[in-house]
Amino acid sequence: MENPESVHTAPVADMEPQTAAGKVLWHFTMSLDGFVAGPGHTMDWMTGVSFRPGLVEEYAATTGAVLGGRDGWDAFPDAGVIYGGAWQGPLFVLTHHPEDAPSGTGVTFLTCDAADAVRIALEAAGGKNVEVFSPTIGRQLLERGLIDEIDLHIAPVLLGDGIRLYDQPGGTPVRLARQDGGDRTAAVNVRYRPLATAPGQSVG
Fold first, then answer.
1. 54-66 burial string, b = 16+ CB within 10 Å, else e?
2. Are 159 and 33 in contact (CB under 8 A)?
3. How far apart are CA 182 and CA 166, in angstroms?
């Protein structure tokens, strides 16, 4: 799951604030090359990444429940790390083997279908949003038309390996519409420069 304990905020351009409207959000910070976690679900690559002020508090306030997968829970078996402890609420972990899952306060293990799991989470969210912190579950819900928004914060880093947001070999492209009030089909333009070309060698 996303674990932004080590991030700090800085003024950067962003979209309109998120609202609590009973939505199902597939929400991640993602590397520029499409990974939402490193190998073994490591998240140390997020250290030093800046977000706009108030972003963590915004999502903590609009989230009513979180739905995650077993791999993410095994990597971070503590509901208290979600949004660095700023969020408190029901956490649901979908797994085929709840009997050997690490126990924890505030977590409920589900063995049902992904669609049933998100229904349970929506009921528990009490009108706020459900955040899906699992690439696998998110893909299943997307295929069934059960994702309302894909919320991504693109970090200025190339991982090259890890857990991809969307991995569907042989699948057909999934068309998306931007939600920032502009051209819904427009590409997102980013421009970065490498901070180093080799260990210890800075770019001027």
1. ebbebbbbbbbbb
2. yes
3. 25
Question: In angstroms, rounded to a whole number, what is the distance separating the alpha carbons of residues 132 and 175?
Answer: 20
Count the Cβ atoms, other than its own, within 10 Å of residue 166. Answer: 15
Residue-wise pLDDT tens digits, 159-183: 999 999 999 899 899 999 988 878 8
Contacts of residue 130, defined as CB under 8 A and 6 or more positions apart, other chains included, come to 23, 24, 25, 63, 64, 65, 66, 67, 118, 121, 122
Beta strand pairing call for 196-198 and 201-202: antiparallel
**60 has a pLDDT exceeding 80:** yes
Question: Residues 35, 162: contact at Cβ < 8 Å?
Answer: yes
Closest CA to 63 of 79, 75, 51: 79
Question: How many Å apart are CA 25 and CA 158, to the nearest integer?
Answer: 24
- pTM of the full structure: 0.85
What pLDDT shows up at residue 153? 94
Report whether 89 contacts 66 (CB < 8 A): yes
